[in-house]
Amino acid sequence: MARFCPLWAWAPTASLGVAILFLQRDFLLALFFITLSIFRFEQVQISSSLFADLSKRACVIQIIGQPIEKANSWSAVGRALALRDQGTWKSGSGYWKVYFEKSAFTPKQGEKYLVMGYLNPIAPSLLPGGMDWPRYYAQKGVGGQIYAKKGAWVLLDPQDDPWAWLARVQKYFQTKIRSAMPAGVNRDVAEAMFLGVSSSIDFETMQGYASLGAIHILSVSGLHVGFLYLGLAFIFGFFRRWPWVHFLLIIFFLWAYAGMTGFSGPVLRSAWMFTVVLAARSFRLKHHPVNTLAFSCLILLVWDPQFLFQAGFQLSYAAVLGLILFQDRLKKCYVSRFWLIDHVWEVTCVAIAAQALTWPLVIYYFHQFPHPFYFFLLNPLLILVSSITLGVGFVFLALSPFTFSWLGYALNYCFQCFHGILFFVADNFHPTLAMLALNERELIAYFVMISLVAAWWQYRMHIFLYGIASLLILVFVQRWVRGPQKGLYLTAHEGHAVVVQLANAHAALYGNMNPAWIQSNVIPLLTHEHIRDTVSRRLPVAWRYANHFVYVARRPCVPSTHMITDLIIEPNQTTRDLRWLKSWPHAHWYFVRRPSAYRLGQLRGFPAKGITFLDEVPAVYFKKKAAFGRQPELD
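RESULT FIELD:
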């Protein structure tokens, strides 16, 4: 099994299963089936015939799923039907990620296209510690990506997909929201919250939500499906005397909503979980919450074991499992005779139980966590306001065929209140603990400790306490045995060279970097190296580092000294005519952006220590022997 599933994926599942077995003895059979379903991983691995090769200039694809609107393109995943290899057409398999340059044309699900262009591999992370994107997409059968410019594709099959009516329903509701709410953050979040259209949300808004642990609200998730389920159960409650009618009516609307929002992973998981719960309740079947959860997990993993490797899948089931196992136990720890305090404590127990099994996964994947003080202080208020907003939003969607302008004003006002609280805290305080690190070994150790705690709680044997203490000692030791890190990473961002320098627990960022790029590329490196503080500085024109003497050329120039070992060539004036590089035979040339083939032809015969195109490779690493106690500083 380990051959197909990495240790960190199935070890926490097995550990949690052992823990639950001590608390819920009837979970063993469900855990056994979940483990067996993982063996199907090899059977559903999708081999892709589309491997990156510049000799392949065209392919025929069929769009699967809803295309996503980006700033300058449409992003879609296409099933490979055929590809041209060295002038010969062959049948294809697997998938390809396609970016259509924006125009009046909008790709649709189910359509077939002849796409012309170079097929490129999935780019790896620029810096260490980031997501292994080639492996991630390879597990999904995606062999690479292609950027199709205007005029570089031909629509072969304009027929609609059988599920295209769901996309039209989504477009209808989106039009209604846009006509009822003014343009801005409130409308963008409303489209994402109720329809799953999140392409227009800016980075600052996403960071504000993430800082208070409310990022799940920005996409259709189990919270939204749960509200819809409760509303449908109330509306169709009078059909309970006819179980089949009651069941089918709710299931139809529940799954229609899931389809309208694109059958995303969180919606699919939530819709299926509520389907199982509804079936048990409608037909008065005996069910245990843990077994119901395990059964829904089993079916999804048998359908596609790839779900096991998705962060959303792990977080969803860990949160629900935490609620089932810990919420009631926590609630019984304190009972107040005051109604308000009792309900606030109940909401707090929900938050604690949901975070009990998810916080290590959040830190592992996102390297940050909401500050406990602000999280638990504001969580009851945010849940109240967000619940009211969701309720008003679903009522607005249900009554959208009618003209009730006041509902649009009410929905916009709810978002104003919610965002007022959210952004006030995010802008005036520091509600996020950033740059937190948790590796695979520590992640596994936490879930093993949960198992040992459950075993000790059940049997009160000291051997389990010894196991917990031993794990804690091992975790602390492996954190401190690492020596001080010191090095420098050179890469390109938005047409300019940027540098990330590490020295022990300190880091310096040189060059202009936007926050979104730092969050996705630099923060994983800093957390991986356990960096505690950072500073931002301008990139100097020349500097020394270890045995490297680096110079940044922003215009054609000649060397003032032969000691320069590395030359960074920024675009614009420097790449108009590259013959000036003849004066730099002793340096390694780093092009921030690859010049045209014609300009590169001018370098034919020119001596150089080496040529690197920073926009096409991971960051270049310059190593320097570490020294304790010094902050980073370019010489």
